[in-house]
Structure formats: C-alpha cells, structure tokens
Amino acid sequence: MTDALSRIGLRRMTGRDPDESHRVATPLELLFDLVFVVAVSQASQNLHHLISDGHVGQGVLSYLMVFFAIWWAWMNFTWFASAFDTDDWLYRVMTIVQMAGVLVLAAGVHAAMVDLDYLTVTWGYVLMRLAMVGQWLRAAASDPASRPTAVRFAVGITFVQVLWVARMYLLDETAQFWSFFVLVAAEFIVPVWAESRRRTSWHPVHIAERFGLFTLLLLGESLLASSNAMIDALGEGEQIPQLLGLAASGIVVTAGIWWLYFAREQHGRLRSLRAGFTFGYLHYVIFAAAGAVSSGVEVEIDEITGHTEIAHATAGLSLTLPIALFVLSAWAILLQPTLSRAASAVVVVAAGLIAASGLLPVGEYAVSALLLSGIVVVLEVAAVKDSIPAGPARTP
Fold first, then answer.
1. With CB atoms 3.0 to 4.6 Å apart as the test, which of 101, 120, 121, 203 could cross-link to 127 if both were Cys?
2. How far apart, in whole angstroms, are the C-alpha atoms of residue 330 and residue 278?
3. How far is Cα 265 from Cα 335, in angstroms, rounded to an integer?
C-alpha cells in the first residue's frame, strides 16, 4: 500500500509522534491562518458598524455567533493537523478547499450580522467541515490504530453538518436562532466522544505555537483596522489631540495584550486530554475578545469625531470590555496556575477596573492602557520572584 501511494505522490496518513523535536507551524498552516483572519476582519468591521448605528445587542450577539463558526473550524483543523499532517498534495488540496469555505463564510458575514441571513455563512462553514470529514476518512483508511477515533470524528461531523443545513431550510427564524445553540453543543460533543475512544497524537508544543500565532494575527488585524480608521479620522483635521492620545494608548494596549498572552510557556500544561480540551475550548473567549478590540477602537473614533449618536458610555464600554475579557480569560486559561493568590487578585481587580473605565467621561482608553501596564509589571515581578532560588535553610 505504501508503494502504491508513493507512486502517486501520497504518504500514509498515520499519527505523528507527539514528542518529535522541532515540530513547528508549516507555511501551509500560516496561509490557512491568514485566510481565517479575513473572516475575523469582516466580523469585527460589522460589529463596529452595528454598535455605531445603535444596534449594540444585535451586533454583539451576531458577532459571537459568526465568530463561533470561524473559531471552531480553525481549531478543529489545527488539532487534526498537529496529529496527521502529511504535507502531500492531497492534504494540501483538502486544506485549500477549507480555505475556500472560509472565503465563502467571509462573504456572508455582512448578511448574517446585519440582515440576520445566515445562509451563506452556513454553507461556507459546512464546506469547511465536510473537507475536514474527508481528512478524517483518509486517516481512518491509512492508520488502523487511529481508525476508531477517526471514524467517530467523520460520522459525528457529518451528522451535525446535515443538521446545520436542515436548520436553514426547515425551520423558521425563531427556531433557527435557538437551534443554533443546540448545534453548537453538538459540535462540542463530537471531539469529546471521538477522543474518548483513543486520543489522537497531537503535539503540545505545536498546538501552543499555533494558538499563539493565531493570537498574533488577530492582534495584527486589530492594529491594521484601528490604524486605517485613525488615519481617516486624522485626515479630517478634527479632534487631533484626542485621536493622538487614543493612538498612543492603542499601542500600549496592543503591547500589553501581547505581553499577557506570551508571559508564560503553555506547552508543558498540554499533556492530558482534559487539559487540551480546556485550553482549546476556552480560547474562544480569548480569540473573540482580541478580534473585537479593533471594533471598539473604531467605535471610539466615531464617538470622538461625531460620527455616531450612541451614548459616550456605550462607546467607552465597546472599547474596554473586550480588553477586560481578554485579560480575565488569559488569566484563567494561561496565567492563573503560575501566579500567587495575591498576584491573581491584582490581575482580576485590574480587569474589573479596565471594564469599568469605559464609564469614565474622558480618558477611558488611557486608563485601560495604564492598568494593563500595571498587570504586566505584576507578571514580571512574579516571574522574577519565581526564578530566584531558595536560600540555604536557617538553623534556629
């Protein structure tokens, strides 16, 4: 079988060694991430416009719903690739098909968030997921040891995709809305059910790197969107001091978010199936918050330049709440096990103050930047203390 596959340029898709050295992200994975950031950018931009137009509830809820589709498809591929990446031509083609699904999804984000028409988003999502089914079937055919798990993944994913499509054509709008959350729960259950049969051989260092790289891309998208909005606003020649202060604070906030996320190594904690599920599932909050930061900046720019009629507090909270959510989720998922109770308390209180700073009459972003800087200082002090070796025991 191996000889037959090699003659057509393919490799057996067997589970990779979870302890192999120099396991890093591939160029294909980086391209894959860039395509996903296009969809995140669309979601963030539409969130900005909906909040600025006064449709806060619709904007936030539709953003979270669309972001689920983006995040879940990305994460499932990332975990699969960590265990079964063959990097042959068929694997690449199937991955590119998933990228096409992302672009279809991105094309439907505006209709989904503004008009509540999720048809295009659903088909883009289903295209990505069915391409993933093809990958799992190939793993099942190639690797007898992984076959039971791979078959469970293929069957479970296919079943849920049928329900996603049926939901769009058989249910009314109210039933579609509530069934969304039922199918999200079903998506969550599939990996738990499949991996309970036999754990796939994902690589802890590779997973930690992949999640970190996607966080960097989200921050880059946020910086680009915020910078473009800032340049347009400055071009109008109004409220320049406030806009420059917002820009300076934005640099500090972005640096602070980066610092928090990469303050501690994570791969050492990803040694059990439970740790992997916790790390992956809870990253939804981290990624969604990071993706929403740029929309908050753009709403604040609209408020400063008079391009929105929403309340000042609404604009402020659209800016500070995503930052606070990022801090809290990063603390809970990445930092809390390494911090003392006192340091953890400081981080949690500072996150609450960041959220509340959105209610300030002026300078809310500057206050958030200062508080975030304070959290970074606490983390660095804690790191220094942890690195100091214990002194010799004292005799009484």
1. 101
2. 13
3. 9
Q: What is the DSSP string of 119-162?
A: HHHHHHHHHHHHHHHHHHHHHHHH-GGGHHHHHHHHHHHHHHHH
Examine the domain organization and report whether 304 and 360 are in the same domain.
Answer: yes
Identity of the residue numbered 76: N
| Domain shared by 266 and 319, yes or no | yes
DSSP state letter for 88: S
Domain endpoint, select from 141, 168, 195? 195
Query: What pLDDT, in 10s, does the model give residues 303-359?
Result: 888 888 899 999 999 999 999 999 999 999 999 988 999 999 999 999 999 999 999
Domain assignment of residue 9, yes or no? no
End-to-end distance of the chain based on CA atoms, in angstroms? Answer: 73
d(CA 190, CA 202): 17
Other CB atoms within 10 Å distance of the CB of residue 25: 18
The 10s digit of each residue's pLDDT in 158-191 is 999 999 999 999 999 999 999 999 999 999 999 9
pTM for this model (two decimals)? 0.92
Measured distance CA(107)–CA(376) in Å, rounded: 38
What is the C-alpha separation between 385 and 340, in angstroms, rounded?
A: 11
Distance (Å, whole) CA 142 – CA 220: 38
- Domain extent, residue 84, equals 23-195
218 and 191 co-located in one domain: no
